[in-house]
Amino acid sequence: MNKRDASQITEDNFQRSMILDRSVMDEEKRTVSAALSSETPVKRYFGNEILVHEKSSIDFSRAKDGLPLLFNHNHSELLGVVRDVRLEKGVLRGTLHFSKNKKAERAWQDVKEGFLKDISIGYRVDKWEESADDDEVRVVNWTLFEASVVTVPADPSVGVNRSQIEDKVMPKKDERSAGNDNGTDLNDENKVVDFKQARRKALVEGREEGRRIESERRDGIEALFVPERFRGGSYDALRAEAIEAGWSVDETRDELLDMVGGGATPTGSPKRQTDTVQSRGNGHIQSGEDQIDKFVRGAGDSLAARTMIEKDDEKRKAARSNEFFSMSMPEMARHYLSIAGVNLNGLGRDAIVSRALSQRGIISHGTSDFAGLLENNASKALMLGYEEAPETWDKIARIGNLSDFKQASRTGLSEFSDLLEVNENGEFKHGDFGDRKENIQLATFGRLFSISRQAIVNDDLDALSAIPRKMGRAAKRKIGDAVYAVLINNAALNQDNKALFHADHKNIVTASAMSIASVDKMRVAMAKQKDSSEAANGLNIPLDMLIVPKSLETTANILRSSQYDPDATGNTRSPNPFHNTFEVVSDVRLDADSATKWYGAANPNLFDTIEVAFLDGNQEPFLESKDGWSVDGVEFKARIDCAAAAMDFRGLQRNAGA
């Protein structure tokens, strides 16, 4: 049996690529059908990998509500979602739905025009089987993580686009030994290092690095021509020449500036400073890392460490050792303007900050690189606040996706008609479904906040971290408000124009204190619920959780965790049938409505109860900035697009309490 590092194989994340089929494209819906993967063997460091494509082999749990669609497997560049992920004749297929954000718009245009042709999946190996006779490795269980539109497809000669894994050298089978898994020992003259394999590894790494650099160069050049004023005619010709001739992003930018200025570099937009510059005709060749790139990265790491947004101890330690950690924000502004070539003679702190905020950016394409640095830190603080907010709505609601702001219908199919007995040579009769529909429509929630020029001059780090962090918490809180409002407001359902909790829905239990008896009434009522056709005897919906106000949280937890009936008196020790059978979810929003009212609910991922939906599945708030919408400084807009609605009454019960 071949010796392979099982822990390493199952810990790595892998990708493999396929070609997009542009013939099945819907431009209006911004969708394209794609074959995502197949059982075609791919050469890995551990052998020839065959990804088994059977339903029992693939973990689809992450694709249930839509698979994230990324760009080049970059988790920070979301393009949309992949829906209807399925197996068809040994091929994994899905429908790519592109969002309308800037990156997704560019990618969609490139897909339509045939510049982006490849789709790649990201996955984890969970279980594999190896052959004793050859290098074939069959992956019999694997988890699907994401799909990506990629600029560089898998190379059949070397396997996959290894953007997340490091290639490794595997020894030949006849060079392995029981005492040495890698089969190579320089101190043993009978064992020979596989120099061919080492050379092949070096070539692979070189090709991958070259592809990465070329991809970044092309993307950087394309980004220069995104503004509408840089499209058409001579601008398109310049872009094409730059890409084909191999110009760097900086060379292309200089030529673009010359074209805009009629042959002269515009005032206030000097050539970028780099470690080494050599002339080349009317342009120049630049080598070494760009100073502004260094500044943006180093200053950004330092601000994240100083504001405690960076939680990783090692990264904070590294940030403390760089040159920007001891700089105040005005000192960073001075450094930025200096490397951008701005004359600082006679400028005070206030003037330097103002100039840094208004200086036209080089790597941020028109907006200030310094303002972009502040936005990046504010965005991190916003996300940190969102992630740490103490919310419970994700426990009681199913997460859904909506592609636009139009009203959408969610259809829930009832149980199928009861099966009928068919006598010998008898006729089979058609059954039918009764369908129900509920509506849900996205809304946008947002606020503005600002970092004033005075706050930057005063090196006020709270303005850069505390405020956006609180905004992140507020965004997550707003989602919770929408979800719990479904229970509190008790609005009418679309299927019958009756309130969610209604006597006709048989989901209102007689008001009583929380006890084994009252919970049991909920359990029985939920199990006896019938489908809309009233065909089934009962749907057997299990009680999964109690949703209670904070005032009843302790009572609910005692009832859940007690081994015996907590209300028993004297020496009576009646067993508690609900011992650890349900989850308790408490929220203070319910206290504001009623301190005694409590609810029972089914698992929202198995039965229709409440859905909270987000635009293209983006659950996190979005941040954008502008130089002074209404203040002297940088103003930020944080927003989130979401909606919550009841999907059905059958999985919910209410008790008004005593």
List keywords for this structure.
658 residues, alpha+beta, 7-stranded mixed beta barrel, 5-stranded mixed sheet, 16 helices, 24 strands
Summarize the structure.
This protein has 658 residues and is α+β, with helices and mostly antiparallel strands. Among the domains are: 6-168, no CATH class; 291-388, no CATH class. The chain contains 16 helices and 24 strands.
Q: What would your notes on this structure say?
A:
There is one protein chain. By secondary structure, the protein is of the alpha+beta class. Among the domains are: 6-168, no CATH class; 291-388, no CATH class. The protein contains 16 helices and 24 strands. Strands 1-2-8-7-6-10-9 form a seven-stranded mixed β-barrel. Strands 13, 16, 21, 22 and 23 form a five-stranded mixed beta sheet that branches. Strands 17-24-20-18-19 form a five-stranded mixed beta sheet. The longest helix is centred in the N-terminal third of the chain and has 30 residues, at 195-224. The termini are far apart. The relative contact order is 0.09. Residues 154-193 and 262-289 have low confidence and may be disordered.
Compute the average pLDDT. Answer: 78
What is the structural class?
alpha+beta
The rough form would be described as globular
Q: What gap, in angstroms, lies between the N and C termini?
A: 68 Å
Largest sheet properties = 7 strands, mixed, barrel
Placed side by side, the strands forming the largest sheet appear as 1-2-8-7-6-10-9
Percent of residues in helical segments?
Answer: 25-40%
In terms of DSSP E residues, the strand content is 25-35%
Number of helices: 16
Query: How many DSSP-defined strands?
Result: 24
Task: State the low-pLDDT regions, or none.
Answer: 154-193, 262-289
Estimated radius of gyration: 30 Å
